[in-house]
Design a protein that fits this description.
This protein is mostly helical. It contains 4 helices and no strands. The two termini are 24 Å apart.
Length: 119
């Protein structure tokens, strides 16, 4: 699969990680190895599940798991903001990127379900 054929959700998740990891590195030490690590690990798992969906016939399971994991990441991101480990601007930008990935996963899931209904 060339980069031109990588599903948009995979590319967006990759770009989110590129932006987010340096943000997590700025977390205070007391939060970096708990909350920061959980956010990073969660998003890496979302990326793995999206790549899995791109390469498997039955995409539904991987996409649903990615969507669930992304929801956990969304809550952890909000918690990090509420604990004041980042500026509101960073939180809002990250939240928008996370929401974009979520919308793309949802769209991919709906298109899969529509394709299955027609076959």
């Amino acid at each position: 699969m060339s980069s031109a054929t990588v599903p948009q959700a995979v590319q967006s998740c990759h770009e989110l990680l590129l932006w987010l990891i340096p943000q997590l590195d700025k977390f205070p030490r007391s939060r970096r190895f708990t909350l920061g690590e959980r956010i990073e690990d969660g998003l890496l798992e979302v990326l793995e599940l999206l790549v899995e969906a791109a390469y498997t016939r039955n995409k539904d399971t991987s996409l649903r798991r990615a969507n669930l994991k992304l929801e956990v990441v969304r809550h952890l991101w909000r918690l990090a903001h509420e604990l004041k480990v980042m500026a509101t601007r960073q939180y809002e930008h990250g939240a928008r990127l996370i929401d974009d990935v979520g919308r793309q996963i949802g769209g991919w899931l709906r298109s899969q379900q529509a394709a299955e209904a027609h076959s």
